[in-house]
Amino acid sequence: MIRPATIFREQTMELPLFAVLQRTPRVAVRLSLVLFSLAIVPALYSLLANPILPLSISSSETDSLPPSDHMHLSHLNSPSVKILSPVNSPIPAPLNHTRLSKSSYHSPPVTTTTSRTQIRDDEQRCDLFKGEWIPNDESPYYNNTTCWAIQEHQNCMKHGRPDTGFLRWRWKPDSCDLPVFDPQEFLEMVRGKSMGFVGDSISRNQAQSLLCLLSRVEYPEDISSTPDKAFKVWNYTSYNFTLHAMWSPFLVKTTKADPTDPECNLFNLYLDEYDTKWTSQINQLDYLVISSGHWFYRPVIFYENETISGCQYCSLPNTTQLPLYYGYRKALRTSLRAILENFKGLAILRSFSPQHFEGGPWDKGGDCVRTRPYRRNETIPEGADLKIHDIQLEEFRAAEEEMTKQGLRLRLMDTTQAMLLRPDGHPGRYGHIQTGEVSLRNDCIHWCLPGPIDTWNDILLQMMKTEK
């Protein structure tokens, strides 16, 4: 109800205006009305076309989950997680993938801030490998329903890992900001080119991470010339980009000590001979990422100049027992020489990927149950991994010097320190179906997908951009 005092004020305000209009010529009044109409009507039409409403928050902001160690990964597979399907797909997407039509797609599949996708000119040469893991509410950028390339033992989501906090971190170098991997930018950069990953299952782990990151733009076609899963080739037809994954866990020529025994775990390593299964193919590549290390913990017999020079964990009579580092150094040196002689593109040596077994070794109940990264100032258990890393640095420096003299490019992707801080990123017991009837060893070597290994491809893209 309006109070009487209010009515009185409104009436007293109307009388002067009425009196003024009585004294104003009709022509002036009509002219004022016309001018008023010309001014206000277009504004009304503009308002109708673009109504003023409160700012809406995008689904990607409302659906992002905060870092938490008490959330089940199945939440990431719910409809609330907005992970776009590929725009281009030369082959039908897997049945459990939902693809958006081109007509319904109006923006890149990755949403990142300007500060995350650009690095200032004075930061182009910053050290990407010294830094810290910081929270990242935007990740992950795919899951096990949007990527077909995740192997069972890396599928931590599927096997019920009960925390998601390990997904919510990104690597932040000390002196610059590392952009999040942009799949469209990557594919444009490698248009008409080819890339190969050579090494063990950790090398394949990175290749599968790349496949998953690129799956937001396009699914590749498998063009492998052989059914052998150890040598896979995919082609992204819209970009004419070919991706190779080549299995060579020892990097040099290798045979089983007893080829007739499928369970034989003793290998012959020819430390001065190339593994031609991959060295014969690299001359067709533009980019090469090579890595190894974990298989050198196995029993092996070393051959040099076609004769036995010693062995490791073999217990053979009249055979010199040699340490792990002997064979690894020689094998790495041989493989880098193969690159020097057969490859003209950008070669990258990725450093050793550390394992994080605690409470025992891998075959005696060791596990990895941590749910967050280490901080740099925390005490981190050290093992043989760091010695292998030292060997890699020494052999890299020697090979780089020689290759530079010949106008060739060899670069180091030194991810060891960053990954040493991520004991939370391994499958652990969630690399297989959880059952009380089957006892399987915990996997604290490979990395969950999605997971911290995706950062390797953030770094890979940035290294490629720097070279360009």
Record the SSE blueprint.
Layout: H1 4-22, H2 26-49, H3 59-63, H4 114-117, E1 131-135, E2 169-173, H5 183-189, E3 194-199, H6 201-214, E4 221-222, E5 231-236, E6 241-247, E7 252-256, E8 267-274, H7 276-279, E9 287-290, E10 300-304, E11 307-312, H8 324-342, E12 346-350, H9 385-405, E13 409-413, H10 416-420, H11 454-467
Parallel strand pairs: 3-6, 3-9, 8-10, 9-12, 12-13
Antiparallel strand pairs: 1-2, 4-5, 5-6, 7-8, 10-11
Outline:
With 468 residues, this protein is of the alpha/beta class.
Low-confidence stretches: 1-24, 40-117
**What's the arrangement of strands in the largest beta sheet?**
4-5-6-3-9-12-13
- How big is the Rg? 31 Å
How many helices in DSSP terms? 11
* Elements, N to C (H/E): HHHHEEHEHEEEEEHEEEHEHEHH
Q: Which whole number gives the mean pLDDT?
A: 79
Give the biggest sheet: 7 strands, mixed
In quaternary terms, these chains amount to: single chain
The gross shape turns out to be globular
Query: Which range best describes the helical content: under 10%, 10-25%, 25-40%, 40-55%, 55-70% or over 70%?
Result: 25-40%
β-strand number: 13
How widely separated are the two ends? 74 Å
Structural class designation: alpha/beta
**Percent of sequence in beta strands:** 5-15%
